[in-house]
Design brief:
Helix 2 crosses helix 3 and helix 4 packs parallel to helix 5. It contains 6 helices and 5 strands, in the order E-H-E-H-E-H-E-H-E-H-H. The longest helix is centred in the middle third of the chain and has 14 residues. The protein is about 45% helix and about 15% strand.
């Protein structure tokens, strides 16, 4: 069983809570890196916790939410071992996996429906990295 990490800020808390159940039903073990309420909080605190878990191998991949997804993605991508893709459509989710080997899926909680979250998540987890010419590009990302 693969272990997936999840995190959010207050704007993404409701979706993150649903995502824990969703992933467990899909057969994954889930580690929750917070936040644990809808009380206003600072997204970097939770993004750094998830990013550290991805880099250390504690979790294989991650899913993160904030209002726009931008703050989470920016913070997660400060970590050399993280390739976080901000996805709001299934096609983007597919390409972040196929071409970029994204290991964290980030979604904008204030701008997409739960139904779309589920569809994006299924596509993202169901898409393999294509490798080939994309491998050398991925190898050039971390600094």
């Amino acid at each position: 069983m693969k272990t997936i990490g999840v995190c959010s800020d207050h704007a993404g808390y409701a979706y993150k809570t649903k995502m824990v159940s969703f992933l467990k039903k899909e057969g994954y073990e889930v580690k929750d890196y917070g936040t644990f309420s809808e009380e206003s909080c600072d997204y970097p605190d939770y993004a750094h916790a998830l990013a550290g878990a991805v880099e250390s191998g504690e979790v294989e991949r991650g899913v993160a939410f904030c209002g726009t997804g931008e703050g989470m993605a920016m913070t997660l991508n400060k970590h050399a071992g993280v390739r976080a893709g901000l996805c709001w459509k299934k096609e983007i989710a597919e390409l972040t996996r196929r071409h970029n080997d994204a290991n964290v899926l980030v979604m904008p909680a204030r701008f997409i429906s739960w139904r779309m979250v589920c569809a994006i998540t299924r596509v993202w987890f169901g898409t393999a990295f294509e490798g080939g010419r994309h491998q050398r590009r991925v190898e050039k990302i971390a600094q």
